[in-house]
Amino acid sequence: METFEILSWIATVLSLAYVILAARSSIWCWVFAGIGCAIWAYVSYESLLYSDAGLQLFYMGMAVVGWINWNRKTSRDEELLPIKRMSLQEHLLVWVVGLPLGYALGRYLGEEWGAVATYWDAYTTVFSVIITFAVINRRLENWLYWIAIDIVTGLLYYSRELYAFALVMLAYTVVAVIGYVSWKKEMEVHELQIAKTD
To answer: Under 8 Å CB-to-CB from 8, ≥6 apart: which residues?
Structure first.
């Protein structure tokens, strides 16, 4: 097995650990995210997926922010920042920012860098960046966005013959469904506890 392929599988395992721990609301997910993204960035860059490589570097920074933000509590009784639903304004912001930025990034990387699958890569990158803020702020619907992003990104990796990464996207899709169900249940329990104390 070549070094490049070994690195792909290591990044895959670390990334799977991240998303499983995130779905379980474990703050340790951010440690696995940071390390896995560093390796993933290198592999993506070498595969000429420049948007994705940049995205992984962004994720490394967000792993630190995620760790800090999840430690914020709104009361002494809470273990982590509580889960909330995304507002209509937050949903609109995702699309109003994501669509033009994805187009601009795709055009720039295609013309200036000679990147492959430019718009496909750019749009998944831009929406991934935006939705990462929903994860950090513990918004329930982040998981619904991830289901769509993971499916499209998996197809992109498959088209570039990055089969390990395509496989992890398939696993991410399954875990995103589980994450949504788990976070919804956690949010409902929290809301019930608040209702009882009022």
So the answer is: 43, 162, 164, 165
